[in-house]
Amino acid sequence: MLLSKLELGSIYQVGVTRQNNSVSSLSLWERARVRATPTGPRQH
User: Fold this and answer.
1) Less crowded by CB within 10 Å, the N or C end of the chain?
2) 38-to-4, 9, 18, 27 alpha-carbon distances in Å
3) CA-CA distance, 3 to 12, in Å (whole number)?
C-alpha cells in the first residue's frame, strides 16, 4: 500500500500538531503549577 505524498503530508502534519499541542499545554501547566506553588526560600 503506497500513500500519496499529500496523504503522508497530512498525517505528518497531524502528528506534529498533536505533539506541539501536548508540549505547549504541558509547559503552560508547568508554568501555572510553578506560579500556584507558594514561593520557597528561593525567590525569583
Assistant:
1) N
2) 53, 45, 32, 19
3) 12
Alpha-carbon distance 19 to 12, whole Å? 11
Q: Is the pTM of this model over 0.70?
A: no
Our CA dihedral for 33, 35, 39, 42, rounded to 10 degrees, sits at: 90
Tell me, what's the pLDDT at 42? 64
Tell me: pLDDT of 43 over 60.
Answer: no
Q: What single string gives the DSSP state of each residue in 19-44?
A: HHHHHHHHHHHHHHHHHHSPP-SS--
